[in-house]
Design brief:
Helix content: 25-40%
Structural class: alpha+beta
Number of helices: 8
Number of strands: 14
Bound molecules: ligand DP6
Strand content: 15-25%
Largest sheet: 8 strands, mixed
Length: 340
């Protein structure tokens, strides 16, 4: 075994939650307070190559061409340990990732990152884990990555108690109807308050947090019915309301915090305007200032037209629903996103 190398390269797409995950009941195992549901996006993804090799002195991690320091590498090593312990294959690993997502700008790069890494390790070590089981591993890297193991619309179940196996994700619908997302990149800088820290602060200090789990439960059952009907107006309305309930819960934390920037509010205003003009467009936001517009893919050009005076073409990323992770033959070049 010592001289054998184990390698694979995988691509995983990011996802944007329509029903948000905001809060853990178990921080060590990343068990969430609520279930959540998302749309996987074709346009944003992470490619990751792994090579387990006895000749390596220690784990290494290269992200977008940059060798990461000991602290960053250790986070990833801890995650890989889950698989080393499970498989008994205790070899050092060289990891190289290329993000096609503006990192940490609220576009959930951790979702595609851990889904790609988990998928590559699963293939390299020939573990044969199903996407559902793999999602319970990915979860322990980043909660939202559970849903990136599936294409289309995916749901991450909150599970029971401290039982890790019961908190897995699965596909709800392949989203092969006229749905898409337009991402308005308000700011591609690293977010000020990570979701991990932000959600914990909200749990600890927001008096509204106690309402959140019951609101999510209600929204989820409405959302599942809307998806069954493939009714984009219902899907969008429920998603928009759910996101704003999350953000108002965040606003009510103490000291107060929020993820809005002036340009986020401007994008929201424009969505309201296009909707008043008869378009099917709904907004959602995550732990960053970017606004994501849920709409029929067929209306994307009309929707973009409303935004063009305030946002450059590079700030508007259109996406159809994406697939679950798949093997690729080589790593792609890092994506250059040019805007101020
Ligand atoms: C607002 O999955 O990034 O995007 O589990 O701590 O890594 P950790 O958090 P993360 O949180 C995502 C929060 C969200 C909503 C969502 O994707 O459901």
């Amino acid at each position: 075994m010592e001289n054998k190398t184990y390698e694979a390269i995988y691509r995983a797409h990011t996802n944007i939650a329509l029903i948000k995950y905001w809060g853990k009941r178990n921080q060590e195992l990343y068990l969430p307070m609520t279930s959540s549901l998302s749309l996987t996006l074709e346009s944003l993804y992470t490619d990751t190559a792994v090579k387990f090799d006895a000749h390596l002195e220690h784990d290494t991690f290269i992200l977008d061409g940059q060798l990461q320091d000991a602290k960053e590498t250790e986070k990833v090593s801890k995650f890989v340990d889950l698989f080393r312990n499970f498989s008994g294959i205790n070899l050092p690993v060289a990891i190289e990732s290329v993000n096609h997502v503006p990192t940490a700008a609220g576009l959930a790069s951790s979702a595609s990152a851990f889904a790609a890494l988990a998928s590559a390790i699963n293939a390299a070590l020939d573990l044969g884990l199903s996407p559902e089981i793999l999602s319970t591993f990915a979860r322990q890297g980043s909660g939202s990555s559970t849903r990136s193991l599936f294409g289309g619309l995916a749901m991450w179940h909150k599970g029971e108690g401290d039982d890790s196996a019961s908190s897995y994700a699965e596909q709800i619908d392949d989203a092969s109807f006229d749905i898409g997302m337009l991402i308005v990149v308000v700011n591609n800088q690293k977010k000020k308050i990570s979701s991990r820290v932000g959600m914990q602060h909200t749990i600890e200090t927001s008096p509204f947090y106690k309402l959140w789990p019951e609101e999510v439960a209600k929204d989820l059952s409405l959302m599942l019915a809307a998806i069954e009907e493939k009714n984009i107006n219902k899907i969008g309305t429920i998603a928009e309301h759910n996101a704003m309930k999350m953000h108002s819960t965040v606003l009510a934390s103490n000291p107060s915090m929020n993820y809005f920037e002036a340009k986020s509010l401007r994008a929201i205003e424009l969505v309201q305007q296009m909707r008043a003009d008869g378009l099917s467009a709904y907004y959602t936001m995550d732990a960053g200032p970017n606004v994501k517009i849920i709409c029929p893919y067929s209306q994307m050009d009309q929707i973009k037209a409303y935004l063009k005076d305030d946002f450059s073409d590079e700030q508007l990323i259109m996406s159809r629903p994406g697939t679950g992770p798949y093997a690729i033959s080589k790593l792609s070049e890092p994506l250059e996103i040019a805007y101020e």
